[in-house]
């Protein structure tokens, strides 16, 4: 590509000004057309994904692409803002285990461990961890511990 660019520049230098202007306008239009085709292919690929997800029942057919994108962006933005604020202010992450009411039954009898709640469609551990992580202020934790010690001593 470098050799082509160099050859193109040398050829352009030898051209009369009117031809050079014409060629530059043509190249601008060709680049714009190529860019628009790339964008169209990119957007078509995104729409294909949504159509596949709707066809397989992963997302409702009545759901619009705009609404889905807005929901995803809002969720990700809010979680990112919370993590950024927590990092800036020195809050400590704390994992919280959420479980459903009731318990599993083993072979129809006996009680097993409780079902954990699932917050994402995929159920991937790293995504679930983001949803169940709370952030605690170390100073407030110490205050609560001190208050509990005082209550226990009285």
Characterization of the model:
The radius of gyration is 29 Å and the shape is elongated. Strand 2 and strand 3 (109-111) form a beta hairpin. It has helices spanning 2-14, 17-55, 65-89, 125-132, 138-153, and strands at residues 92-95, 105-106, 109-111, 133-136. It has two domains: 1-60, no CATH class; 64-154, no CATH class. It contains five helices and four strands.
Brief write-up:
By secondary structure, the chain is mainly alpha-helical. It has helices spanning 2-14, 17-55, 65-89, 125-132, 138-153, and strands at residues 92-95, 105-106, 109-111, 133-136.
List the helices and strands and how they pair.
Elements: H1 2-14, H2 17-55, H3 65-89, E1 92-95, E2 105-106, E3 109-111, H4 125-132, E4 133-136, H5 138-153
Antiparallel strand pairs: 1-4, 2-3
Labels describing this entry:
154 residues, mainly alpha, two-stranded antiparallel ribbon, 5 helices, 4 strands, 66% helix
């Amino acid at each position: 590509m470098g050799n082509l660019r160099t050859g193109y520049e040398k050829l352009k230098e030898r051209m009369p000004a009117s031809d050079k202007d014409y060629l530059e306008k043509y190249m601008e239009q060709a680049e714009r057309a190529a860019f628009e085709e790339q964008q169209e292919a990119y957007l078509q690929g995104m729409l294909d994904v949504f159509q596949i997800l709707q066809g397989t029942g992963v997302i409702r057919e009545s759901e619009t692409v705009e609404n889905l994108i807005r929901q995803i962006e809002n969720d990700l933005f809010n979680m990112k803002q919370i993590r950024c604020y927590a990092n800036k202010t020195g809050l400590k992450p704390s994992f919280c285990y959420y479980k459903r009411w009731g318990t599993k039954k083993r072979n129809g009898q006996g009680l097993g461990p409780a079902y954990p709640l699932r917050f994402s469609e995929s159920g991937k551990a790293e995504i679930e961890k983001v949803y169940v992580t709370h952030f605690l202020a170390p100073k407030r934790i110490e205050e609560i511990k001190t208050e509990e010690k005082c209550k226990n001593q009285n």
